[in-house]
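SAMPLE LOG
Freezer: B-3
Tube label: C17
Construct: single chain, 185 aa
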Amino acid sequence: MIYPILAYGDNILRKEAEDYPRDSEDLTQLVENMYETMYNANGVGLAAPQIGLSYRIFVIDSTQMGDEEEGTGIKRAFINPEILDEYGNEWAFEEGCLSIPDVHADILRPEKLTIRYFDELWTPHEEEFDSLTARVIQHEYDHLDGVLFTDYIKGLKKQMLRAKLVNISKGNVDIKYRMKFPLKK
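STRUCTURE (predicted):
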């Protein structure tokens, strides 16, 4: 099932998400639906708040990013994740977001991280990631804390984006995937 992706301006995108309950029976199906929604929108990551579910879940597929020198990437679901450490040199990379279409900006993030999480079968993991995979994880993890990549943009560039962000929240954007707009008239 393909979910509509919430657009910038929706209050759920600003809430801190809750842990996903272990006794829920629909986790595997939810993860499959999140992948289907992400691929339908040509994304490399999708967090549950972006589809209107305020739970600490995200999926990524960094294998699509295609930089041979960075390795092959991963396809993985992260349930109730906790970033334990972020380290290494900060580096800039142009990020975008399915909830904020047609907006991109260079964002500085540490190059490596260690994260603890469960997969969709409730198997626990603690792993280190780096490069583009770490970046995708950091971006999606931010969604679980109500943080958007545009929050890292400062000064004049932020002011220049203001009108574009308002237009997105009103549904004045040309996209090829289903979205839900908070202020659509």
